[in-house]
Amino acid sequence: MTERCAVIGIGQTHFKKRRDDVSMPGLLREAIDRALEDAELSIGDIDAVVIGKAPDAFEGVVMPEIFLADAVGATGKPLLRVHTAGSVGGSTFIVGAHHVITGIHDRVLAVSWEKQSEGNAQWGLAGGRSGGIGAGGAFAPWIRAYIEESGAPEYIGWMVAVKDRRNAAKNTYAHLKMPDITLETVKESPMLWDPLRFHESCPSSDGACAVVLTNQAGARRSSKPAAWIDALSVRSELGQFPGRNPVRPQAGVECAHDVYRQAGITDPRREIDMAELYVPFSWYEPMWLEGHDIAGPGEGWKMVDSGETDIGGAFPVNPSGGVLSTNAIGASGMVRFAEAAMQIRGTAGEHQIDGVRTSLAQAYGGAAQYFAMGIFRSS
Amino acid sequence: MSTDSPARKEEMVMEHLVSLTYRERLTPNLNRFVDRILEGELIGHRCPSCSRVYVPPKGYCPLCVVTTSAEDEVKVSDRGILTGFTIITPVAYYGQQATDPFVYASVLLDGASTPVGGQDITGVAHGRIHTGMRVRAVWRPPAERRVEGITNRGWGGLDAVIESFEVTGEPDASPEDYKEHLF
After folding, report:
1. Residue A216 belongs to domain spanning
2. Of B86, B113, B180, the CB nearest to A141
3. Rounded CA separation A138/A149 (Å)
4. Which of A115-129, A343-357, A365-379, B23-37 has the lowest mean pLDDT?
């Protein structure tokens, strides 16, 4: 790394089922304006813009980077669009940070979004054909394999759902806020993708997230604390091959080990203070705790069971409420990075955890085949 | 005027449904696969380097990074093991015709190294389906077999040739037999 990179501005829209009050460009601009205000900069100060969203079929707007160039302040500047399925928000953040780390640009704006109400993600995933299985249908067999292999009780999934929805109630920007949700609420909700129930599944949201990234000189000019990037990594693998373990994809293992190595971390469970993990379906919390070697094999669900991943626990996961509470697909990966950075900067508001000095962000996509991870530190 | 009033909202919605029909030329490997399934046979390619059998034939082994051809063709059984599944409650969207819960299962055919995904399981109540069950293909009558849904992008569309996989009642396979070939 020739330059250190810091997050000095973070902006999110309010995430809702429908944001009829704004157009797609307006939605992006809402997040961008908040990020610029937080960074104490104007759009003219930005050198380059990186944007990312999930498949165009989700809204039916093809190549949105072309018509959005003006709204995102990229006219006359470098503009790149990133796409890595559900992990795209994370990889968009990383591509933006690489512009700073390599010394090419001083101030980079990265923004990602989805306006799912303008289309139908299930239709998009099914290619318009009948019998679409949705993301839940694709992941459910692997979740079943995890449950069978680990022997985890079924209430673990319900516990994650309750925790994340209650956490979301503390987050101004979150979509689903259910402060009174109980294990019973989840247990009695309809079975959607056996063994996943309705309340164990993410919603479909409209929203955007933006970050302003800069180098050491840029961070010095900001009056607010910065979140410093200590590690970034992206890994991918084929969606299917003989011997593949989709419950613990090798790309996810290697991505995690790469960020731990870069940040000098040997015991992630102790050395990392909190994590924002991409958990669109409840069981992915224990699955990623194990899949990224934070917990040993069969130990991830025990961290959930003991309350270790609660806001007050020893290893809080998704204090923002996570993807389970807010899922504008393209934005979801970047929200993980933004929230992990906010925890470092002490700007997470009601869902702030005390004394966070090292935080982890993770996003995954496709058939659990794309991974984007990052580690933030306070200095 | 409030943007939340129903009348206003209707003005904002534009129904704009687009459909595309396109034809593509199947790869020679898939073409042979299609010819054989119309005759009620399943084939794959055995990698000359590692002996893994890919069904349908890909024309290469992604693990050894070697090409495979008709010379590597092998016949596989239409019986196999249920390695993974979910039962899906259909969500309504444009074009969705499914209304009742349906099974979405992976079946590892005897002699294959990769399972075929997206299969229906019959001959058993949904609540009794479990991994490891032995199943066999229920072929549609030859005149009713359709292959339009099979594309170069993957192996979807098999259901227009094989209606479902029916449980055979044989003893379950041991997880050791298929754990390296789950997905």
Report:
1. 6-121+204-221
2. B86
3. 18
4. A115-129
How far apart (Å, rounded) are the C-alpha atoms in residues B43 and B175?
24
Which element (helix H / strand E) includes A166?
helix A155-168
Contacts of B114 in chain A (CB under 8 A): 240-242
In a domain, A19, yes or no: yes
Distance from CA of B181 to the nearest CA of A (A): 5
What's the rounded Cα separation, in Å, for the pair A200 and A191? 9
Flag whether residue A20 sits within 8 Å of chain B, measured between CB atoms. yes
Please report the ipTM that was assigned to this predicted complex: 0.86
Strand order across the beta sheet in which A6-12 lies: A79-82, A48-52, A107-115, A206-214, A6-12, A227-236, A370-377, A358-365, A274-276
Nearest CA in chain A to B99: A131
For A17, the token pair is 């089922």
CATH code at position A210: 3.40.47.10
Domain count, chain A: 1
Predicted confidence band of residue B181 (pLDDT cuts 50, 70, 90) = confident
A·B CB contacts under 8 A: 102
Q: Which of A283, A323, A306 is nearest to A145 (CA)?
A: A283
- B94 and A191 within 8 Å at the Cβ level: the answer is no
Q: What is the pTM of this model?
A: 0.94
Please tell me if residue A188 touches chain B, with a CB cutoff of 8 Å: no
- Residue A309 contacts residue A316 (beta carbons within 8 Å): yes
Q: Examine residue A70 and state whether it is found in any structural domain, yes or no.
A: yes
Q: Indicate if the alpha-carbon torsion angle A72, A328, B99, B116 is positive or negative.
A: positive
Strands (E), A5-155: 6-12, 48-52, 79-82, 107-115
Top residue of A20, A59, A194 to mutate, by most chain B CBs within 10 Å, is A194
Chain A residue with minimal CA distance to B11?
A20
Q: Are A166 and B133 in contact (CB under 8 A)?
A: no
Q: Are B68 and B27 in contact (CB under 8 A)?
A: no
